[in-house]
Amino acid sequence: MNTAFPGLLHDSGKDEQQPVFAEPWEAHAFAIAVKLSEKGLLKWSEWTDALAEEIKEAKDQGNPDFGNTYYQFWLSALETILLKKNILKKSDLKSMMEQWRRAYLSTPHGNPVKLVKYK
Questions:
Q1: Residue 75 in contact with residue 60, Cβ under 8 Å?
Q2: How far apart are CA 97 and CA 101, in angstroms?
């Protein structure tokens, strides 16, 4: 099995194990939330409340869940709680998103996307 995180597998109930994370960014979002909690920058209960709210809002808006949206909610909840707690500034978030967009658009197909520098 080809996975960027071979130690992160779960039993799918079949004869094979499946990766816990479909993409590396999902594992990164998970790790960021865990680390912020460990450092005391957010309580785990705050985090779970923010994640539950993201999922509820999507459901209330009729957004379908195709099984691949969970970590998108995770990331959105992270952004929301970090902005709310003033750990992250909206201008910094927008700047970083734009830097990633530019890097993505200028990276040849098949090559890893890399940021040259961050402010």
A1: no
A2: 6
More confident residue, 78 or 117: 78
SS3 14: coil
Are 25 and 33 in contact by the 8 Å Cβ rule? The answer is no
Chain CA centroid to CA 38, Å = 17
Tell me the pTM: 0.68
Backbone angles phi, psi at 113, to 5 degrees: -80, 130
Q: Per-residue confidence at 2, pLDDT binned at 50, 70, 90?
A: very low
Take residue 63 and report the two structure tokens written for it: 């957004």
118 near 94, Cβ under 8 Å?
Answer: no
State the Cα–Cα distance between residues 65 and 16, nearest whole angstrom.
25
Q: What does the alpha-carbon distance between residue 89 and residue 19 come to, in Å, rounded to a whole number?
A: 33
**Those residues with Cβ within 8 angstroms of residue 89's Cβ, 6 or more apart along the chain or in another chain:** 83
